[in-house]
Amino acid sequence: MKDANDWIEQLELLSHPEGGYYKETFRSKDEIITSAGKHNNANRSLYTSIYFLLTSDNFSSWHRIKSDELWHWHAGTSLTLFVIHPTGKLEEIQIGDQIEKGEKLQVLVEAGCWFASAINSKNNYSLVGCTVIPGFSFEDFELASSEKLSILYPMHKEVIEEYCRS
């Protein structure tokens, strides 16, 4: 049975600024010109895909991107994906393979939503894939500050502070 370090080594994963480890696996050669409101009329790949691994001693800090992101569960334990929609609604979505317990194998985070994630059990890991459409660019990535995000969504201050690094 593989552990987190096996996956990190075998998939050649790197540390991600939001927490966890990642490696880009696909970047579409086809590009589109995105709309002015979302990406400032920038060229973007049609899609990108990464492996993303979290361990129980880490979390993915609150962040948002300007594209839709589809999460796919691969291995390990389940994780919770916290999503704050622009309306202020907070969702806690379980990603994993225990469908009978309400976990989902795939989850879509819509563009512009703030999101964070954490493992559901101790001494474990979760390996997922993330596909971003249109393709991911760090220009479209924003890490949250707990102070600023808590001002926007004071009703979620506790969970914001728990999963923010700044």
How would you summarize this macromolecular structure in one to three sentences?
The chain is globular, with a radius of gyration of 16 Å. The strands form three sheets. It has a six-stranded antiparallel beta sheet.
How are the secondary structure elements laid out?
Elements: H1 4-10, E1 14-15, E2 21-27, E3 31-33, H2 36-39, E4 43-45, E5 48-55, E6 59-65, E7 68-76, E8 79-84, E9 90-95, E10 106-109, E11 114-119, E12 125-133, E13 141-143, H3 146-152, H4 157-162
Antiparallel strand pairs: 1-2, 2-5, 3-4, 5-12, 6-11, 6-13, 7-10, 7-12, 8-9, 8-11
Strand content: 35-45%
Low-pLDDT stretches are none
Structural class: mainly beta
**N/C terminus separation:** 35 Å
Mass-distribution shape: globular
SSE order, as H and E? HEEEHEEEEEEEEEEHH
Query: How would you characterize the largest beta sheet?
Result: 6 strands, antiparallel
| Main sheet: strand order | 1-2-5-12-7-10
Give the tally of β-strands.
13
Mean pLDDT: 93
Helical proportion? 10-25%
The total of helices stands at: 4
Radius of gyration: 16 Å
Please name the defining characteristics of this protein.
single chain; 166 residues; mainly beta; six-stranded antiparallel sheet; five-stranded antiparallel sheet; 4 helices; 13 strands; globular
Summarize the structure in words.
The strands form three sheets. A six-stranded antiparallel β-sheet has the order 1-2-5-12-7-10. It has a five-stranded antiparallel β-sheet with strand order 9-8-11-6-13, with no helix packed on it. The chain has a two-stranded antiparallel sheet with strand order 3-4. The radius of gyration is 16 Å and the shape is globular. The model has no long low-confidence stretch (mean pLDDT 93). The chain contains four helices and 13 strands. Strand 8 (79-84) and strand 9 form a beta hairpin. The chain has helices at 4-10, 36-39, 146-152, 157-162; strands spanning 14-15, 21-27, 31-33, 43-45, 48-55, 59-65, 68-76, 79-84, 90-95, 106-109, 114-119, 125-133, 141-143. The longest helix is centred in the N-terminal third of the chain and has 7 residues, at 4-10. It is mainly beta.
